[in-house]
Amino acid sequence: MNQSPLSESHTKESLVDLLSRVAQGDRLAFSELYESTHRKLFGIVYRILKNQAVSEEVLQEVYLKIWEKAASFDASVASPITWMATIARNRTIDEVRKNKLPDSDIDVDFDLIADDSMAPADLFTKSQDLLKLEACLGDLESPRAEMIKAAYLDGFSRQELAERFKQPLGTIKTWLHRSIKQLQGCMKL
């Protein structure tokens, strides 16, 4: 399995296997995990930071955390890419909170952001899941769907959401919690 990530799409099972091997200290598995997922995770980090140099630094820290926490990954709770994306998103939001960053980079290498190619069956499953998520988001009370997207896609902090939606911080926390629960229930149907 030494193929380029551009020519091979890793399945959920192969990523679970790689994470399991990483948890045992397998550096070769870690290298393969990095090669197969770094573009996707860089895209998540960059979408929030909009700065290539800082995104690259944060991505290094993300993979260090993945190396350190691989043993805590539980495939029954989340998919490997969701687990790693959550680590990336959380670390990126920490970076935003810690530093006021410039708005954007002009010289971005967009080839680094592109997602790895997916097999047609994976694309179909992903598109079905996205359609279902879109429908579930539509079931949320207004403006909760917009708030969920701002929090989880754009990296807004709870405080920023409170300011944007002109609501107390406690209300935002409650809305987020209830909205996530509602989305989880809807996605299981």
Automatic annotation (TrEMBL):
The keyword Transcription applies. Keywords: Sigma factor, Transcription, Transcription regulation. InterPro entries: RNA_pol_sigma-70-like (IPR039425), RNA_pol_sigma-70_dom (IPR014284), RNA_pol_sigma70_r2 (IPR007627), RNA_pol_sigma70_r4_t2 (IPR013249), RNA_pol_sigma_r2 (IPR013325), RNA_pol_sigma_r3/r4-like (IPR013324), WH-like_DNA-bd_sf (IPR036388). Residues 131-183 form the RNA polymerase sigma factor 70 region 4 type domain. Residues 33-100 form the RNA polymerase sigma-70 region domain. The keyword Cell division does not apply. It holds the Pfam family Sigma70_r2. One of its GO terms (biological process) is DNA-templated transcription initiation. GO terms for molecular function: DNA binding; sigma factor activity. Signal peptide: none annotated. It comes from the Bacteria. Belongs to the sigma-70 factor family. ECF subfamily. NCBIfam families: sigma70-ECF. PANTHER family: RNA POLYMERASE ECF-TYPE SIGMA FACTO (PTHR43133), RNA POLYMERASE SIGMA FACTOR SIGZ (PTHR43133:SF62). This is RNA polymerase sigma-70 factor (ECF subfamily). It comes from Marinomonas rhizomae.
